[in-house]
Structures are given as structure tokens and as C-alpha cells.
Amino acid sequence: MRVILLGAPGAGKGTQAQFIKEKYGIPQISTGDMLRAAVKAGTPLGLEAKKVMDAGQLVSDEIIIGLVKERVAQDDCEKGYLLDGFPRTIPQANAMRDNNIDVDYVVEIDVEDEEIIKRLSGRRVHPESGRVYHVVYNPPKEEGKDDETGEPLIQRDDDTEETVRHRLDVYHSQTKVLVEYYKIFSQEDTKNAPEYVKVPGVGSMTDIRDNIFEALGD
Ligand code: AP5
Q: Which parts of the sequence belong to the Adenylate kinase active site lid domain (predicted)?
């Protein structure tokens, strides 16, 4: 099972990724999480990425493609993987094809911009695990603490309203074109053409989860 989760910032990719990776026993490869780990570790890549991420811009294709190529070559990806937040540009999608990083499904989670702004202002995350909460829509059992470890939850630096609006602009100008890209690719008569599916991303998280599982052939 090799899947791309496509959708605007805050569409629920990270939330649904938790369900999918558990059900199919595949690793979640989140380029955003990988970059935040590099920022936290203070590596040269992290220092460079932080400025770009805080401004709501995209990190260069070259860096991202290098990270993903290295990650999918690891042993735990043999039975599949879930790509969350990658690809995000046409050059990234082309690089996947050039490097034979194939996928079976491209799942687009569709949510309107105004809903996204409400969601991201209330988001809290557990950085070590990638678990995602919302102060109203999906609160932790104990306020401000991760359900499994009890460790503190944080608010991401790029979740301010101004940066979220900028991230949405970047999504519409650079990433949304991938919807058409994958619709066309899915119609190709080649064995590596993925199946493209669109799932409405508003409503209960478990209903959205069930719709995704159904789309993945469950
Ligand atoms: P990244 O970490 O990938 O962020 P993103 O794509 O902007 O997506 P988010 O993580 O913000 O949202 P999500 O869709 O996962 O939503 P979530 O499930 O958390 O990227 C961050 C930055 O890194 C980028 O801006 C860029 O700089 C860089 N980067 C990363 N990848 C890159 C790449 N490939 N190329 C270049 N640069 C890259 O949900 C959001 C909130 O809503 C949560 O609080 C959740 O609880 C709540 N929620 C979820 N579902 C529902 C629901 N159904 N109803 C109500 N609330 C819900």
C-alpha cells in the first residue's frame, strides 16, 4: 500500500495519516515532520528550513527530494509508505516518477480555506510522535498534554493566522495543480499509474477515515 495524501495545510492529512498507518502497518513519511525534527536538532538543514517554514514558504525542491529519496530507501518502506505533505510541486512529482517512487493511490482531502483558518488556530501537536489535537474539535484527555505520553503539547510557529493565509496562497499557487496532474496520470494506461480519489474533509474525523478506507479498497 503506497499512498499520497494531498490537501491544503490543515486539511487533516496528519490526522488521517495516524489512522492509515495503523491500519496498513506502513510508515508515515511527513516532510513537514522531518523538517521540524531537523530544526529541533539544529542541523544546517534545519537552520535553513526554519526561516522558510516560519514565513509559510516552501523549502527547495532539491532538499526535499533528497530527503524523501533517502527515506523511502529504508527497510521499513518495503511493504509501502504513506506520503504526507509530499509531493507539493510539479518538480517534486516529476522527481518521484524519475526515481521510480511509485504510488497506488493519491487521496485528496478537500476542505475550504475559511474552515482551515479556524482549525489551525486551535491545533496542538505532540512533536515527538506527530499526534495532532484541536482544542475544540479533538481535545486531548488532559488539557495541554499528549494522551499517550502525558508530555506537553505545543502550538506550531507557522500556525498564526497571517502565516496560515500565506501557506494557503502557496498551496493554491504551487500545490493545487497536482490535483490535475494526478487526475491525468491516473488515466494513463501504464502499470504505475495511481488511482486518484477525492474525499470531502469536513465532518467527523472517523467518517472521513471510513471514506478513505473505502477509497483504498477496504
Ligand atoms: P507540513 O507540516 O506538511 O504542513 P501542512 O501541509 O501545511 O499541513 P499541516 O500539517 O498544517 O496540516 P494537516 O493537513 O496535516 O492537518 P492536521 O491533521 O494537522 O509543512 C509545514 C511546512 O514545511 C511547509 O509550509 C513548508 O515550508 C515545509 N514543507 C513540508 N513539506 C514540504 C515539501 N514537500 N516541499 C516544500 N516544503 C515543504 O489538522 C489540522 C487541525 O484540524 C488539527 O488541529 C486537527 O485536530 C483538526 N482537524 C483535523 N480533521 C478535522 C475534522 N474533520 N474536523 C475538525 N477538525 C479537524
A: 123-158
Q: What whole-number distance in Å separates Cα of residue 218 and Cα of residue 207?
A: 14
67 CA from centroid of ligand 1 (Å): 18
pLDDT at residue 189 is higher than 90: no
Does the model's ipTM exceed the 0.90 cut?
yes
8, 116 Cβ separation under 8 angstroms: yes
3-state DSSP call for residue 203? coil
Helix axes 90-98, 177-186, angle to 10 degrees: 30
Q: Based on C-alpha coordinates, what's the Rg of the chain?
A: 17
Any idea which fold 2-216 has? Answer: Rossmann fold (3.40.50)
Q: Where are the domains of the chain?
A: 2-216
- Rounded to a whole number of angstroms, the distance between the first and last alpha carbons of the chain is 12
Q: Whose CA is nearest to atom 5 of ligand 1?
A: 9
**C-alpha cell at position 14:** 496528519
- Joined grid coordinates for residue 171: 498551496
Q: What is the mean pLDDT of the chain?
A: 95
Percent of the chain with pLDDT over 70: 100
For the chain, list the strands marked E by DSSP: 2-6, 28-30, 81-84, 105-110, 123-126, 131-134, 195-200
Determine the residue of 19, 20, 30, 31 to mutate for testing ligand 1's pocket, defined as the one with the most ligand atoms within 8 A of the Cβ atom: 31
Task: State the CB neighbour count (10 A cutoff) for residue 97.
Answer: 12
What pTM did the predictor assign? 0.94
Residues labelled as active-site residues: 13, 88, 123, 156, 167
